[in-house]
């Protein structure tokens, strides 16, 4: 039986909604409910490339991701779910020309100043990390061994289990159709299973966030773009431990899953669109570019291809904060492909904002109103 009154209603049962519920529960908020129109993780979370990196080019994202990595590495123990572990297998950005090298040297300098141990390495060092790389045209690489990857299915399952055991209501197959507003403040939500009273509503629906916003007369520029991914049959296990990224090769990113299969994609996108039909163009470009980075991959078979949404903003950075037009309404969406990796820090900052009104994390960078002021941020790198 679904509750008819809650303190906090969270729209969206992906990693952002679940992790934020977890952080709110830690702060003593007991009457929380999550509403997911399909099954948990069915939006962008279960379609992501698994990567978690601190190698960004701006201070805010580096600080957020440094905190996110700290939290990802401890999550399994915190929620008593030892199956979940972040594998700190590193991120390796391959560099092919002096412009790339110059840009990444500046990024590494900024990352180091904020406590992230990235460094520029030689082609020979890159090949020691990934022996099957073709480094014939590589002039260097940006490497951080504390970046890595994690299993989104285990993250969602572990968090959901913990939340249910601690009294957080999770409603799957329950679509939120509108937010009820009275006197300029949140009064509840309308769902496919009835109305629920709520003092606070968090819109964590990512690609679908704009649909709810538009009904409320709120306009933040979040659009759904189709990105795709692949998984292959097992390759030599342990050969590609880090996430390998190459801008030269179609914005390619790839790594290995625990069973040795290759998971990854390229930067090809379609949209705005709600169509998630996989395309042959993507498959062809993946095959062409992956085999230029690691020639031995030409001998393995791709066993699955899928599509998912990047909920993109004009500067490819998320929209996180309080919606000033409606008291009690918050948004954490538009992550532009970085929602899984950013989730722990975004959730911590949002939970602080809801319970205390402020946070020490740099959420101002993701201010929902920056677009109407014409204050776009540096564009975040959209891959892996």
Model description:
- The structure is a single chain.
- The protein has 384 residues and is of the alpha/beta class.
- It has two domains: 5-47 and 153-221 and 315-370, FAD/NAD(P)-binding domain (3-Layer(bba) Sandwich); 89-146 and 223-312, D-Amino Acid Oxidase, subunit A, domain 2 (D-Amino Acid Oxidase, Chain A, domain 2, 2-Layer Sandwich), CATH 3.30.9.
- Helices cover 28% and strands 26% of the residues.
- It contains eight helices and 18 strands.
- It has helices spanning 15-26, 59-78, 98-113, 123-129, 152-165, 209-215, 280-293, 339-356, and strands at residues 5-11, 32-35, 51-52, 91-95, 119-121, 140-144, 148-149, 169-171, 176-182, 185-191, 194-203, 223-234, 243-246, 252-256, 261-265, 302-312, 319-322, 329-333.
- Strands 1, 2, 8, 9, 10, 11, 17 and 18 form an eight-stranded mixed sheet that branches. An eight-stranded mixed sheet has the order 5-6-4-13-14-15-12-16. A two-stranded antiparallel sheet has the order 3-7.
- Helix 1 runs parallel beside helix 8 and helix 2 packs across helix 8 (339-356).
- It is globular.
- The chain starts with a strand and ends in a 28-residue tail after the last helix.
- 49% of the residues are buried.
Please provide a brief summary of the model.
Helices cover about 30% and strands about 25% of the residues.
List the helices and strands and how they pair.
Blueprint: E1 5-11, H1 15-26, E2 32-35, E3 51-52, H2 59-78, E4 91-95, H3 98-113, E5 119-121, H4 123-129, E6 140-144, E7 148-149, H5 152-165, E8 169-171, E9 176-182, E10 185-191, E11 194-203, H6 209-215, E12 223-234, E13 243-246, E14 252-256, E15 261-265, H7 280-293, E16 302-312, E17 319-322, E18 329-333, H8 339-356
Helix pairs in contact: 1-5, 1-8, 2-8
């Amino acid at each position: 039986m679904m509750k008819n009154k809650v303190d906090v209603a969270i729209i969206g049962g992906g990693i952002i909604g679940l992790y934020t519920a977890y952080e709110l529960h830690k702060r003593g908020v007991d009457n929380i409910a999550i509403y997911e129109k399909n099954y948990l993780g069915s939006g962008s979370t279960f379609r992501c490339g698994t990567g978690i990196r601190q190698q960004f080019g701006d201070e805010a994202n580096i600080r957020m991701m440094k905190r996110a990595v700290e939290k990802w590495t401890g999550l399994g123990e915190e929620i008593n779910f030892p199956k979940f572990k972040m594998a700190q297998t590193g991120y390796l950005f391959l560099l092919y020309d002096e412009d790339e090298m110059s840009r990444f040297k500046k990024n590494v300098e900024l990352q180091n100043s904020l406590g992230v141990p990235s460094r520029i390495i030689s082609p020979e060092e890159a090949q020691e990390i990934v022996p099957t790389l073709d480094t014939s045209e590589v002039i260097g690489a940006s490497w951080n061994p504390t970046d890595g990857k994690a299993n989104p299915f285990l993250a969602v399952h572990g968090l959901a289990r913990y939340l249910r055991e601690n009294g957080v209501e999770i409603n799957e197959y329950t679509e939120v159709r509108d937010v009820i507003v009275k006197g300029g403040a949140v009064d509840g939500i309308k769902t496919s299973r009835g109305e629920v009273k709520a003092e606070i509503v968090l819109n964590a629906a990512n690609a679908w966030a704009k649909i709810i916003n538009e009904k409320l007369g709120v306009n933040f520029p979040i659009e759904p773009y189709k990105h795709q991914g692949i998984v292959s049959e097992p390759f030599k296990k342990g050969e590609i431990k880090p996430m390998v990224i190459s801008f030269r090769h179609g914005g390619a990113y790839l790594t290995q899953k625990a069973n040795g299969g290759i998971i990854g994609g390229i930067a090809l996108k379609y949209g705005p669109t709600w169509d998630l039909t996989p395309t042959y163009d993507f498959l062809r470009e993946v095959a062409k570019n992956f085999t230029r980075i690691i020639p031995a991959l030409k001998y393995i078979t791709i066993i699955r291809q899928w599509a998912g949404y990047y909920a993109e903003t004009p500067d490819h950075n998320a929209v996180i904060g309080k919606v000033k037009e409606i008291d009690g309404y918050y948004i954490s969406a538009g992550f532009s492909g970085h929602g899984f990796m950013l989730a722990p820090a975004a959730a911590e900052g949002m939970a602080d904002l809801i319970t205390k009104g402020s946070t020490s994390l740099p959420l101002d960078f993701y201010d929902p109103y920056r677009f109407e002021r014409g204050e776009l941020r540096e564009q975040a790198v959209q891959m892996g």
